[in-house]
Amino acid sequence: MGEEVDRVEFTRADRTAFRNQVHRNLDAFARMLREARFAPERPMTGIEIELNLVDEQYDPAFKNSEVLSAIEDDAFQTELGQFNIEINVPPGQIDGIGLDTMESAIRDSLNAAEEKAGRTGSSMVIVGILPTLMTDHIHREALSTNPRYALLNDQIFAARGEDVQIAIDGVERLAVTADSIVPEAACTSTQFHLQVTPEAFPRYWNAAQAISGVQLAVGANSPFLFGKELMRETRIALFEQAADTRTHELKTQGVRPRVWFGERWITSIFDLFEENSRYYPALLPVTSDEDPIAVLDRGDTPALSELRLHNGTIYRWNRPVYDVVRDKPHLRVENRVLPAGPTVVDTIANGAFYFGLVRALADDERPIWSQMSFSAAEENFHEAARHGIDAEVFWPGVGTARATELVLRRLLPLATQGLDAWGVDAAVRDRLLGIIEQRCLTNRNGAAWQADEFHRLYTKGSHGRRDALRGMLRRYSEHMHANTPVHEWPVD
Fold first, then answer.
1. What digits encode the pLDDT tens for the residues 207-234?
2. Is 55 helix (H, G, I), strand (E, B) or coil?
3. Which GO terms describe its molecular function (predicted)?
4. What is the CATH number of the domain that holds 324?
5. pLDDT in tens, 411-451
């Protein structure tokens, strides 16, 4: 969830020093961009998948420390809540059979981890929001023991000066108050990383923003929160509200939120890092001893730790990433739009659709972002969060259309073209994009299946609401472990 920190109190001097250091980092970053010091573009991706832990009744299991001790694998790490862990998949190739190889590696890692987690009485579930998570599970003691999370909690609430109000309208209405950021832990996502050059970054970022709504429409998997059926991707509204540092008055004044879609197309990655420093006060003002300009002067690569730490507390749905591997800096687009799940194969299919589509749009001589407004892309994003696979979105040359029809008629051919440009094996390409195609033809993604199965048990059956959610999650888990694509899951 970002850089590790261990400071527990911050002074005014700390904040001033951090701001000055971020600005010096920005100067160094601008110089690195001018001097072309970055690694070349490679068809590489890394994937992060956040997981939920459940007990034998399929209620949340607050055991991430025990589970991680049992797993003993550095690829698995803590997340915000004690009922969360995360797997960081090592970077791999997109081209050839790379996506197939990555799918197999993820399945093998998760299966091995699941067996060990079982020794603690826990099981892992890949889902956007754990359907059995209730308000009585949300309390400060549910935060992971990593000191970063308690510190982040304290800093957010110090900035807010009041409790978090969560109000979400969907199929039903939810209105609750929280005195910690634990509700944010309910949001479990998949993050795709794509390494690009500085010159290509704005094209890939703009393309990722343009397709975020379509991604959500076909990949929604978070219809329940605290026992209520809300939006098809409730995780979007929940994350926006749970991590908000603004008071009501600051919202009214138009102060930008920390969970942010953005407000314009960009022409340089520098635009995004500069916005971070201009609009957002530090949450975790921890400074290093590094002088990045001096590091550049001697021919070495600066860590830019303050710039990276600050960037990690601003939650863009498509986030810029600066990183250093083996003393060589590189840039990535981190796509944070999608929920976790429902299966590993669905996750990799979502990735193939994303990688192919952004490549095709980034390569287009007439960019999609020159044909649609940024506000239209943002409206598509929130429309898809609300309605999922039934969403209607705007697309240039088409107008407003069902997302599924847009995908079938326009976007899947583009994704095919993009995967070909990456050099993806044709059989891998067709298998993975075929899963996206079938979701659109059957009108079934994770959110649709969850809702249908819940209503089979609750509305049409004899189960109480909480037991219906447990029963639905039990069947979900069975299908998830079978790695059957969600469009094939029965409701009976």
1. 999 999 999 999 999 999 999 999 999 9
2. coil
3. ligase activity, forming carbon-nitrogen bonds
4. 3.30.590.20
5. 999 999 999 999 999 999 999 999 999 999 999 999 999 99
Tokens of 311: 């960037």
> Contact at 8 Å (CB) between 226 and 170?
no
Locus of tokens 């694998």: 73
What SS3 state is found at 266? coil
Chain centroid to Cα 114, Å, comes to 22
DSSP class of residue 410 equals: I
Tell me if 4 is assigned to some domain: no
Which residues make beta-bridge pairs with 193? 46, 334
Amino acid identity at 420: D
With beta carbons less than 8 A apart as the criterion, state whether 454 and 224 touch: yes
Q: Which helix (H) or strand (E) holds 193?
A: strand 190-196
Torsion of CA 491, 389, 93, 103, to 10 degrees: -10
Q: How many residues does the chain have?
A: 492
User: Taking Cα atoms as reference points, which of 117, 150, 59, 165 lies closest to residue 474?
Assistant: 59
What is the residue range of 115's domain? 12-488
Which of 417, 416, 406 is closest to 440 using CA atoms?
406
> What's phi and psi for 24, nearest 5 deg?
-70, -40
CA atoms within 13 A on the CB side of 158: 12
- Does 5 reside within a domain? no
Domain annotation covers residue 3 = no
